[in-house]
Every structure is written in C-alpha cells, then in structure tokens.
Design brief:
Structural class: mainly alpha
Distance between the termini: 52 Å
Strand content: under 5%
Largest sheet: 2 strands, parallel
Helix content: over 70%
Radius of gyration: 27 Å
Number of strands: 2
Mean pLDDT: 84
C-alpha cells in the first residue's frame, strides 16, 4: 500500500489533475441532472462507464460486508488489548522492570549501551514502559493497536488517493484491523508479538513507527514550504537512527525498501528532476540514519561484550553458512505459507478496491496503468528482507535463530500490506469491468426515474460476498489461537498474583532465600531455565525485583 504512495509523492500535479477531472465531472453531471440540461431518458454516452471512475452500482451489500469484517477483526484485537490487563513479568521483563525502577530511564539506557546490547532507543522506550511498575506493560498492547490502526487507515487513504480513488472509511478500517489480527494471531508466537513488552518494543513497535514515518515522508515531499520539508528531512534521519538502535531486523527491511524506492524514483522518468529529488533525499536520509544507528549499536561496549559471549562461528559469507541460511529461509517461509489465513489480507484489499472508486485512468482500456516496476517492487523487498532477517538471526542466535518468530513481523507487515494492495487493485479492476458491463447493458434501457441508484449487479454481489467470506474465514481460523492465548494469559496472571503476594509477604518477614515456582508462557524463559544458578540471569533479575538475595525452586 505504501510503496505506490511513496513513489508517486512527487506527482502532485498529476494527482491534482486526476482529482480535479473527477470532481468536475461529478459536479457537471449533478448540475445537469438538476437543471435538465443534457440529460435525457437514455444515456448520451453509454461507454462513459468504461473510462470514468465508476464503482460497482451502489447497494447495501458492500457496507454490510465491511461492517461485519470490522466487527469480527475488531473483536479479536479488542480481546488482545483486554488481555494486556493480565500481563505479568516473565523472562526479560524481570530485568527491565528492576532496572527501570532502580536506575531510571537514563540509567537503563546507559546500562543497555555499556553492558547489554547497545540498543539505546530500545532501552529508552523500555525505561518509559516500565516506569511506574507494571502499568506500562498492561496498556502497551492497546497503545500499539490504536496507533497502528490510525496509521494504517491514513496510509490506506494515501494509497487510494494515489490511484485516483475516493477513500471510504469503513473499508479502510476493515483493512487496518484485518492486517493487525493476522499479524498478532496468525503466527506461532502470539503472546510475544502482542503482549510481551520486550518483544513488542523490539519488533512490533518498529512497524508502527515505520507506517507513521512513511506518512511523514508523503507529507514532507508534497509540502510547498521549504522549512517544513527541511524539518521532515531532518526527522527522516533521526527516525532512521532511532530504528537502527531499536531493531536490527526492521532496520534491514526498511533500509532495503527505502533503497528500492529511491532507486525507482531516480530511474523512473516523468516528473521534473526537482520534484523527483524530494523522495530521493528522504530515502537517502532514512538510509543514512539507519546506517549511523547500526554503527552506533555495533560499536557499543554492550554489543562487543555480547559478541564475546558467543562461540566462534564460521563467517556468514561462507558457502556453508549461506546454504544453511537459505535452508532456514525456506523453513521459515514454509511456516508462513502454511498459514492460509494470510490470504485474508488480499481479500480485504479486494473490498477496499470495490468501495473506493479506484478506476478510470488505471484500469480502463487505453488509459495509463501503474508501471510494472511499481507493482512488483514489494516482492523482492519482502523476499530479500526476510532472507536478511534470517541471516541476522542465524548470526546472532545460531542454527535455531530462524525460529524466533517474533522477529518475523519486520517482513510480515510489508507482506500483508503488499497483499492488501494487490487485492485492492484486483477489486478495482473488477469494479471497472462490472461498471463497463453495466454501462453497456444499459445502453438500450431507459434511465431510472428521479436519479435513482442502479441496483447492484449479480457480479457485484458475488465478488463482494466471496471476498467477505474469505476474510471472515481467515479471521475465524484465528479464534482457537485467541482462545488459547486468553486461557494461558488469564490463568498465569491468577497464579502469578498469588505467588507474588506470598513472596512479598515472606520478604517482609525478613526471608533472604524464597521459593519460586516457574510460570511459563509464550515459550519464554523463567527462573531456573538452567541448572547453573550463576548463569541463570532470569532468577537473578527476579530476585532483584523482589529485593532479596536469592530465590530457589519450589
């Protein structure tokens, strides 16, 4: 969705002309209808439907289907947001919680840079989330869902406008909610992707920032004020630096996307050079910020210490390692493609294309169409980006690195947006074809009296209902995962609260070595994950959180 918007940001004139033509046509038609000038009982130009931006004949089917999809996907996301109230510390939570409490936001940021991994933006955001106890971790899923929904709706609106359509709120919301529901629940690590704060900060939040950064890019390159554009370009570099020190996987994928878009803008003829220069500058500054952030992370004392703890591995550029990474990449995509629910992203895109009046200059015979390079751009970005993620995971975590599914969000979000965009183009093409057929069929029939709307055709109803059923089926597949997540999260919260009360009561009586029962969830580490207590960092952080020297298995 965002790729077409980004590559077309410099064509403000073309977009304005397309919108003006459509608006003027509608205005003239409405005036003629009111005055009776130029309007007869028969259409003067039956072929007009093949070149104008006519959608399917209007009816209640599409709004009802979209509203049903919004209700279904929204309910799944609402459950996830509600489960945030039942989030309790586990694994990295223990360490981040006590450090934010004892060291403060700047203290935990310094600790990450000097002794952990160098992710200063990650540490700063973690300090904000864990400040004030566990409240931040409970509301974080809701904050992410709201910010993601708003960003996706606005990005979808830009996408529709770029194609000369008229955005409709209901299909846009449906797309935003379905994309999120698939992202949170279609994978193998739902708890980590949505509810576990360390993973959502590292891997889900970057996608939210990326969507808003893309919107900022569109606004920046289109703005007439030099000062506003300069501020936007500066923000591109700063945001890129923040992403580089927040999430390495997303930095790789977003950098690849920005480089591809910049190259496309540079090579694509059409707009004047001074206009094409703006998106190119944005992409260069974004990539420069990413590079500086990754360099700051890689050269940090914390990153050097972390690399020193890992056994020596063969170079990732060796043939054996590249072959192994390729096999891991195939395993990963085998898992992703095995979940057919992702087709729901394309199906909800079809609904967007049906309801947004996309058409005319892009789909009618003999008119200008989207360049093939723009249409195909998401494919290499997603494939190469996912391979880069696998290579990074293998380098950092070894042969099992590809199974860290929480990192897959870095390329799953672009993949879902691409599917949604392709679905919208398919829906728009179907709408244009149906409108042309309806116009041809109405050539010899009297027009409806009083300007009444033409009832939806059988083709319109069939395509709309089929797309809606596929979307609802893809969300229905997610329900068992949501049920399991709900049961596990609520059950653990009750057990954790009881144990927390007991430990605090014993600590208040002066106990220095208290029993702890591991409460596992989401395939995450709990205290005593290793028999060597000196290497059990989870137990050490849990004891620091409770303010006691030691805990033992109970």
């Amino acid at each position: 969705m965002g790729t077409a918007s980004m590559t077309g940001t410099g064509e403000g004139k073309g977009e304005g002309e397309g919108t003006g033509r459509g608006t003027g046509t509608a205005a003239r038609t409405g005036t003629a209808a009111r005055t009776g000038v130029g309007v007869g009982r028969h259409s003067a130009d039956p072929g007009r439907a093949t070149t104008g931006r006519r959608p399917f004949p209007r009816g209640p089917v599409l709004p009802v289907v979209c509203a049903t999809v919004v209700a279904a996907a929204g309910a799944l996301i609402a459950v996830g947001c509600f489960l945030g109230l039942y989030v309790r510390p586990t694994s990295d939570d223990w360490c981040a919680a006590w450090k934010a409490r004892d060291l403060g936001v700047l203290g935990i940021t310094s600790d990450f840079y000097t002794t952990q991994n160098g992710r200063v933006t990650n540490a700063f955001l973690s300090g904000l989330v864990y400040t004030g106890g566990l409240t931040g971790t409970k509301i974080l899923p809701t904050v992410l869902a709201v910010a993601f929904t708003a960003g996706l709706v606005l990005l979808g609106r830009e996408f529709v406008r770029q194609l000369g359509g008229i955005p409709r709120v209901l299909p846009l919301i449906a797309c935003a909610l379905v994309v999120q529901a698939l992202l949170y629940y279609a994978g193998t690590r739902s708890y980590q992707v949505l509810l576990w704060a360390p993973a959502t900060i590292s891997h889900t939040l970057p996608s939210v920032i990326g969507v808003w950064a893309l919107l900022l890019a569109v606004r920046t390159v289109r703005h007439r004020s030099t000062a506003v554009r300069a501020a936007g370009f500066a923000a591109a570099f700063l945001l890129g630096f923040a992403i580089g020190t927040l999430s390495e996987p997303f930095a790789l994928v977003s950098g690849l996307l920005a480089a591809a878009v910049g190259l496309l803008v540079l090579l694509r003829p059409g707009p004047p050079a001074r206009i094409r220069r703006r998106p190119l500058v944005w992409c260069l500054l974004w990539c420069a910020g990413l590079a500086c952030g990754l360099v700051a992370l890689y050269t940090s004392p914390g990153a050097r210490w972390r690399r020193a703890q890992q056994p020596e591995r063969a170079s990732m550029l060796s043939s054996d390692e590249l072959r192994a990474a390729f096999e891991d990449w195939l395993h990963m995509w085998g898992t992703v493609t095995g979940q057919w629910a992702y087709l729901g992203a394309a199906a909800v895109g079809v609904l967007l294309g049906l309801g947004s009046r996309i058409g005319g200059r892009h789909f009618a015979p003999g008119t200008r169409r989207l360049p093939l390079t723009v249409l195909l751009l998401p494919v290499p970005v997603v494939l190469l980006g996912s391979f880069a993620v696998v290579v990074g995971l293998r380098s950092g975590y070894g042969p099992s690195g590809w199974t860290y599914a929480r990192t897959w969000t870095s390329f799953l979000v672009p993949m879902e947006l691409a599917l949604c965009g392709y679905g919208a183009l398919l829906g728009a093409a179907a709408a244009a074809a149906a409108a042309a057929a309806a116009g041809a069929g109405a050539a010899g029939r009297p027009a409806a009296r009083g300007g009444a709307r033409t009832p939806p055709t059988a083709t319109a109803v069939t395509v709309t209902v089929a797309a809606g059923c596929l979307v609802l089926a893809s969300t229905a597949v997610l329900v068992p995962n949501v049920q399991q997540l709900t049961t596990a999260t609520v059950t653990r919260a009750a057990a954790w609260d009881a144990q927390n009360a007991r430990i605090r009561a014993e600590a208040a009586r002066g106990a220095t070595d208290i029993g702890y029962t591991p409460l596992h969830i989401g395939n995450l580490a709990e205290p005593f994950f290793t028999r060597d207590y000196d290497r059990d960092w989870v137990a050490a952080c849990a004891s620091r959180w409770y303010g006691i020297p030691r805990i033992h298995p109970r």
